[in-house]
What we know:
The chain is an alpha+beta fold. It has helices at 104-115, 124-139, 153-164, 172-178, 183-194, 198-215, 220-226, 232-243, and strands spanning 14-21, 26-30, 35-42, 45-49, 52-56, 60-64, 70-74, 78-85, 98-101, 146-148. Helices cover 37% and strands 22% of the residues. Helix 7 crosses helix 8.
Amino acid sequence: MKRTADLPRNPPPVVGFADCYVGGLVDRFHTHDRAQLSVFLSGSVTINTQDESFVLRPGQGLWLPANTLHEATCRTDLMFQVIYVDSCLTSADNLSCKMFDASFLIRGLVDEIIAMRFSFVMDDRMSVIARLLVDEIGRAPRIADRLLFPSDHRLRRVCEAIIARPGNRHDIDYWATQAGMARRTFTRLFQVEMGMGFAAWRRRVRVVEGAARIAAGQSIAEVAFDLGYDNAASFSTMFHRTFGVAPRTLRSGSSSTSRP
């Protein structure tokens, strides 16, 4: 396994490598002093920051600004590419945390940087490649199927428990009790913090989780049952309502479940 510690002492402004992790590995919360671009080639991974949770599939990328605290949990065996970008590329500082579909151009630019290994000279050509890569990440439409975390620690504890076991069937009264709140206080605070009701947020957790499982090869019927749905049809309806496509599209290699 490669780490930023394996990079040369004074790497060029952009540097990267390809790697693979085994399923079940957890890379605990850490930061990098450079911005990080990850492009996923196979498998599925959950990446949590302090404020958001992302479930990524093949063909998708994630941009993390420098010094972003994050943790990765490999849901399956994982193949990916990583590029670290120094702040001297000024446009990189303007990009916030972002999940997106990696275009053919982005993948090609990443391949060019990785092919140079760690000891290349940052000449005019590589400067153009690096700046174009950052510009293309900025232009890529943001994928909306991420999960926000509340700032209230009681609500966050509930949200983390639901993300860990999205198929549980506990009702809202149970979760209000777990948060140490009256039901009315719980629902009101959840709406204020998250911009949606508790039930809507939990449905979103389930369909985002379902998308990752289907892309990893699990059957739609099995996913629906595991996530607390009575049948595959009801899960498919909710999936389509959330993403605008049927879950079977993930079987054809499509990674597009995005909305503006």
